[in-house]
Design goal:
GO terms for molecular function: copper ion binding; diamine oxidase activity; primary methylamine oxidase activity; quinone binding. With 702 residues, the protein is mainly beta. It is 9% helix and 36% strand. Among the domains are: 100 residues, Roll (Nuclear Transport Factor 2, Chain: A), CATH 3.10.450.40; 120 residues, Nuclear Transport Factor 2, Chain: A (Roll); 263 residues, Copper amine oxidase, catalytic domain (Beta-galactosidase, Chain A, domain 5, Distorted Sandwich). The strands form six sheets. Strands 1, 2, 3, 4, 5, 6, 18, 19, 22, 23, 24, 33 and 36 form a 13-stranded antiparallel sheet that branches.
């Protein structure tokens, strides 16, 4: 065993004739591959040309329009995929998932469509959620257009506060040139279903602006599709609430407002929020020289063919979903499937605070399209110089596919510790033998920069059949303006800055198929026991024993919409209508979302000899401190889990590796002559990567 109904109905199936030459059959793993730029464009063109949809471009125009928000692969059904992969059945129909915002109608809504077949789409059909749940228009993710309109509304509404802001911060919104204010928005956007009221944190727009709040937070209601009806409802300034912009402006004009005066910021290169080096290590060693590097002296030991990755005994298919990030399929070791799917589902951060923005913040990053926030990885920093870099293409809130350079990387990593080793002493100053196997792992990596935070997502493959899933948190902390009352909810990390306490929770889907799809779930309980010694009368022996029992521990009482992160582990039967534990809509409607994880486990189905899915939650509490300036560091801020074989093999499968070293003395006990056995070249050769550092950083429509 392995541890560990639509309000806008589309009743008509639209069909368009298509023709063209037949391409050569691609690799079987390609049934899980992300859509190519050509496929993304084909889907968009097909939908834009359907008159009954009435779609408008994403850019420009009013909010009250019909538009295409997202296009990504719709994975094939598992039964069809396995029939193709294992039994030579027909290749599954390749389809796209399209998310459409229908805002130009009396009752706006969100509709999802399956579009295919690709690469030449000719039809679409509606996609629904479990139980026929509809998606209200107010649950839609934010778009660039809405942010532009939000900024315009904010600038206009805060015009009476320009004297206050200039006096307190030296920055403003009006005619500001290089001394402008900006904002960060938090979510959920309200206190109940149907609301779209967002608290905006006003900040000075300098490098690392997340750490430069101005002391002002603004609640702006932007539910109405017409921005002319948007309005500021409340304000918070330096610890005090105000019912209107006018009330705050008049308080300042009367001289009755305690101003939160911020010091003049230094030049950009000297900001505390900058990465610019400053200071020296007392008595330290030089840091101007390059440090240790990863190298591949005999070339790569892994194989990458399209989206199929092979390493040692491992083989898997992968993709980078625009909505939620990395997803592995058909994970095999030694030719045998151990998991059908392993994927990131959601990343959550719950905050506490004294200011309204801080106390309201509950980020659910799938709602911010964390998979499409996969910006360029830097060679030699984000990944070793030897890594293979892959581009990603997303069609999210855009009028065409956007290329994200070097969004993923693959590399073999020396772990710095042997996979296993033993020194067999003769206890006379010599030894019988030494043997060791170097520690190596293959890493598949991407990142998600969801505004202030950067998540580094890794899947690691080890030669002993162990798979590790890991995420590191780094980037800027979500910070608010310091007030004495705020000390209850975090640390004062700079003069006017409070680092708010928060909890990171990351949710994964693990569809294990160990020796087939029919699996069971068992727990192993370790108990301490004290028993009579069978070979010495009257004596006692203490030790531990293991007992195996079926089923998970009792469920705690939960709040339904956000139950998935409250379980360390939940095991359910697999269903096609339960593909994900969260959705891109949960962030803006967490009170009544279309996907509720509690419904996955409420049915009380048997999980014995069934196709099972393990839903895994990992996380950590982050109490920010001064050392989180300028950024949270990765050491100590990483969590994950392992999939490990447990009596699945007859022995450690890494014995098939040809990388061990064995040393035996030929003349014990003097050990003056040694036999050194190894199956790799005696010397690895030169280990220098000749290319200089380069970086592009752009992500543009293609």
């Amino acid at each position: 065993m392995w541890l560990l109904g639509l309000p806008w109905a589309l009743a008509l199936l639209v069909t368009v004739a298509s023709s063209g030459p037949t391409a050569e059959p691609p690799d079987p793993a390609s049934i899980f591959a992300d859509l190519t730029p050509a496929e993304l464009r084909a889907v968009r063109t097909f939908l834009m040309e359907r008159p009954e949809l009435g779609l408008s471009p994403s850019r420009g125009g009013p909010l009250a329009k019909n538009s295409l928000f997202l296009v990504e692969l719709l994975p094939p059904k598992k039964r069809s995929a396995l029939r193709f992969l294992e039994h030579g059945g027909a290749r599954p129909r390749r389809e796209a998932r399209a998310v459409l915002f229908f805002g130009a109608q009396a009752e706006p809504n969100i509709t999802e469509l399956a579009v295919g077949p690709l690469p030449r789409p000719s039809s679409y059909r509606p996609l629904g959620f479990k139980g026929g749940r509809a998606v209200p228009f107010s649950a839609r993710p934010m778009t660039r257009l809405e942010y532009e309109l939000l900024y315009e509304a904010l600038v206009a509404a805060l015009a009476p506060l320009e004297p206050l802001l200039r006096e307190a911060t030296g920055f403003g919104f009006q005619n500001c040139s290089e001394r402008c204010l900006t904002f960060s928005d938090i979510a959920p956007r309200g206190l109940g279903p149907g609301e779209r009221r967002t608290w905006l944190v006003i900040q000075r727009f300098v490098e690392g602006f997340f750490l430069h709040p101005a002391g002002l937070e603004v609640l702006l209601d932007h539910r109405d599709p017409d921005p002319r009806r948007w309005a500021v409802q409340r304000l918070w300034y330096n610890g005090r609430y105000f019912g209107s912009v006018r009330e705050l402006a008049e308080s300042h004009a009367r001289g009755a407002l305690p101003l939160a005066r911020l010091p003049e910021p230094p030049p950009a290169r000297h900001l505390f929020s900058s990465y610019e080096p400053r200071g020296r290590f007392p008595g330290g060693t030089p840091t101007e020289a390059h440090g240790a590097k990863v190298c591949e002296p005999q070339g790569r030991r892994y194989r990458l063919r399209g989206n199929r990755l092979e390493y040692g005994g491992w083989s898997l298919a992968f993709r980078l979903r625009s909505s939620a990030g990395l997803q592995l399929f058909d994970v095999r070791f030694g030719g045998e499937r151990v998991a059908y799917e392993l994927s990131v589902q959601e990343a959550i951060a719950f905050y506490g605070g004294h200011s309204p923005a801080a106390m309201q913040t509950k980020y659910m990053d799938a709602g911010w399209a964390m998979g499409a926030s996969s910006y360029e990885l830097a060679r030699g920093v984000d990944c070793p110089e030897t890594a293979t870099f892959l581009d990603a293409h997303h069609l999210l809130d855009a009028d065409g596919p956007v290329r994200f350079r070097r969004a993923l990387c693959v590399f073999e990593l020396p772990t710095g510790v042997p996979l296993r080793r033993h020194f067999d002493s003769d206890f006379q100053g010599g030894f019988h033998f030494y043997a060791g196997l170097e520690g190596r792992a293959l890493v598949l990596r991407t990142t998600s920069t969801v505004y202030n935070y950067d998540y580094i997502w890794d899947f690691l493959l080890y030669p002993n059949g162990v798979l590790e899933s890991k995420v590191h948190a780094t980037g800027y902390i979500h910070a608010t303006f310091y007030t004495p009352e705020g000390r209850r909810y975090g640390s004062r990390v700079h003069s006017h800055l409070l680092g708010n306490v928060h909890t990171h929770l990351v949710h994964y889907k693990v569809d294990l198929d160990v020796a087939g799809s029919g699996n069971s779930f068992e727990t192993m309980d370790i108990r301490f026991e004290n028993i009579s010694n069978p070979w010495s009368a009257g004596a006692r022996v203490s030790g531990t024993r293991a007992g195996v029992g079926q089923g998970p521990p009792p469920r705690p009482r939960l709040t339904p919409p956000l139950t998935c992160p409250r379980y360390h582990l939940a095991v359910t039967r697999r269903h096609e209508n339960e593909p994900s534990s969260s959705s891109i809509y949960t962030q803006n409607d967490p009170w009544d979302p279309p996907v509720t994880f509690e419904s996955f486990i409420r049915d009380n189905e048997t999980i014995e000899d069934q196709d099972l899915v393990a839903w895994v939650t990992v996380g950590f509490l982050h109490v920010p401190h001064a050392e989180d300036i300028p950024n949270t560091a990765t050491p100590g801020n990483a969590v994950g889990f392992f999939l490990r074989p447990f009596n699945f093999f007859n022995e450690d499968p890494s014995v098939a590796s040809r990388a061990p070293v064995i040393v035996r003395p030929l003349d014990p006990p003097s050990c003056s002559r040694l036999e050194i056995r190894r199956w790799t070249p005696a010397s690895p050769g030169p280990c220098v990567h000749p290319e200089p550092f380069t970086y592009n950083g752009t992500y543009r429509q293609v």
